[in-house]
Amino acid sequence: MRVLYAIQGTGNGHLSRARDVIPALLKHNISLDILVSGIQADIKLPYPVRYQLKGLSFIFGKKGGVDVWKTYYKANSLRLQKEIKSIPVEDYDLIINDFEPVTAWACKLKNKPCYSFSHQAAVLSNLAPKPKKKDRMGKWILNNYAPTSQQFGLHFKSYESNIYTPIIRNDVRSAIVSNGEHYTVYLPSYSDEKLLRFLSKMKNIKWEVFSKHNNYEYFSNNIHIKPITNEAFVKSMASSKGVLCGAGFETPAESLFMQKKLLVIPMKGQYEQQCNAAALAEMGVPVIKSLKKKHLVKLKHWLDTDTIVPVDYQDNTDEIILKLLEESLVNNQATSPIGIELRA
Predict the structure, then answer these.
(1) 3-class secondary structure, 118
(2) Burial 120-130 (b: 16+ CB within 10 A, else e)
(3) Which of 60, 146, 152, 218 has a CA that sits 20 to 30 A from residue 124's CA?
């Protein structure tokens, strides 16, 4: 059975999850090719990548949202169309897609089944929490960015049968957790200067800030700026007093798993993060809208409290992969039998 696993390369969450999904796939008797598209990731996969594409990336800004102009500038439609036409999806028995637009559209144009295995698939569920303020354009983009025919979703809670709790990577599961004196910060849509101005107002707090905009390490009074590496980030989170981050999926989920107190700031104009913030708020996680002065009171209150939101995130990666492969096998055998040995 030939399988193509297509991964979104904007941000680090998709590739971080892939580090655990790929070994789970390789346990079965399949031939696996990997595709990565996007230009905003800071980590690499320890596996050979068959297709490395530019795809369609959202570019992080420095003021709390997506840099619309850079995103538009990088979105070369002719190049994207060529990439979509270049991927031989018809040569594969199964396409697994983690919010990756090139293979999703290649499959749609060739009427090829495509299995979504992503957080975004769960966010789009009618049963998943949504923000009070409607965002029709944001929802439309999320629906059409990487369209798929079958969905396996991941979310902070299992809101319905095809939605599973987060895949917590082995690096995090095996980390030694302690409660240190610092707070770990990951807010890639803000500039270092903005973070320094805001966080320096809490003079007695130690901050470890992982920067999307810097590749060297330095100190500024009580703030330690660090470039992003997987090992350093996991170590910082595991030994932190708490985590301040965007309302993405992987970092909040990993923080909750480590039983860290958590505060999130959703990116402006990013519908998925607004949905995540609604889900986290429903669970009891505090949310602030931005790094404006008026939100300092809520930040200080969070620093003064020790409320932990309990979760039970079991290691379910093998179970999900087995169900996905079994479903695809049943669907494919209806038309053309495929030789595959599934190992429970």
Answers:
(1) strand
(2) bbbbbbeebbb
(3) 60
